[in-house]
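Repro:
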Amino acid sequence: MVPSAEGAQTTRSIAVIINPISGTGGRIDVARARAATAAALLTSHGADPSNVHLTERAGHAREIALNAISRGIATVVAWGGDGTMNEVGTALAFSGVALALVPSGSGNGLARELGVPFDPSAALDVALRGTERTIDAGEIDGRLFFNIAGVGLDARVAHRFAVHGLQKRGFARYMRLTMRELSEYQPDVLTVTTPASSICKPSLLVAIANGRQYGNGAVIAPHARLDDGRLDVITINARSLVRASLELPFVFMGMIDRVAGVTMETAESVTIASASPIVYHLDGEPIAGTLGISARVRPAALKIKVPAR
């Protein structure tokens, strides 16, 4: 069957942005092999292989994505982890240009939620031939996130990940850092305010969720939906290391809402305030040194490619 002119143009109008660090341990030969794989697949579909790019520095993925928009590219692929997804997604938001994912990070929560395959060739096939879905975003002080943001333990673990640079950052390391942080963590007294409620108490974490999971099956917001025009706000009261360790399996069973001391609410906006500086994260990228944050939902913010059903 000969593809239609419209379909052929859509196939050609694709760019791939590869983070050479994510999932490679910093090995440039692995990154180049990924670029070759992407170029070969684009060529086989009649797309331009020169639209495959390796990022060179922080912020470079966003620059490439903005340039792709200006050139009329219809789909931009982010090959990397949650940070790469966020960097490219923030450039594409509200532009009408679709994001596609090739997950290679430590968590890949959004990719898992959307059912994007982890095999690179299969994920690139979704980018080329999948269907488009529109999802919401969250916004904190002008910065967008598409999966989960938060204050407390998860933000501190994200900070630990960031400072370890190119070291192995898989699930086992995530769990070790989480348990280490739990053993040392001194909970902040956080005031969490939505249009319907206000809670002030020592908190292990407060998650602001657009999607359901951090990744690796860790479901922090079992009732969240990516396109409902709401954010799920999950507050977990402070608790001992022993209790937190015993309750951790509930997260991986998608049953955190059954644990005592866990509050869940949906809202269009939320503020979190503290008397001392706090660390927060956006899609796993840590930001430090603020006394509070204000978040709101941005409905129908991003087109994203998902497997055809």
